[in-house]
Amino acid sequence: MDDVLKMNNLEEDRVGEPNSSPSRWEPEQVGRALVRAFVTLDRLPRLRGPREPGGHWPRHAVEWVDQLAQAELEESERRLRERTANRTIIRPSGAEIAQMEAAFDWLRELRNVDSGMALVTSVWALRSARGRSVKALCSENNWAPHTFYRKRSKALNYLAGWLNERRATVF
After folding, report:
1. pLDDT at residue number 76
2. Helices 94-113 and 115-129, interaxial angle, to 10°?
3. CA–CA distance from 61 to each of 48, 58, 64, 65 (Å)?
4. Contacts of 23 (CB under 8 A, 6+ apart)
5. 110/72 Cα distance (integer angstroms)
6. What CA–CA distance (Å, rounded) separates 74 from 92?
7. Helices 145-166 and 94-113: crossing angle, nearest 10°?
8. Residue 9: per-residue pLDDT
9. pTM of the model
10. Nearest CA to 159 among 51, 33, 59, 21?
11. Is residue 25 within 8 Å of residue 170, measured between CB atoms?
């Protein structure tokens, strides 16, 4: 009996936790979902086609001089090579792909409303997903950062309101 009461109390505590998914879309959640969509897109398998360059030379024996030259490389370059060689990509699940497609549909809807907001939001999400600088993006395109963030904020607010009107499930 005490175990049942403890379980009920734990379930009641979990309802109020910040980790439980809310019932309404917030602009920050929309932004995180868009960034996750581009991360998922990067994890999808590449299309079949020509192989990437490299690995086409025949194997050969490595001589002592070559090994000495390789040992003299900087440690950071060696670590980078090792990370690249040992990189494994975890493929996205079906649910992640479905969420990605839903997020891209949101960008299509936003493009129908205001193409400038859609451009700013999609470029921001792509840059954020790849860990690239938004400040550099603004300077490359001669965009004012204040205007860029204002448009992004307006777009995320619009999308959150649009999703709440449609009663879209929060993920």
Report:
1. 66
2. 150
3. 32, 10, 10, 12
4. 170
5. 53
6. 35
7. 110
8. 44
9. 0.66
10. 33
11. yes
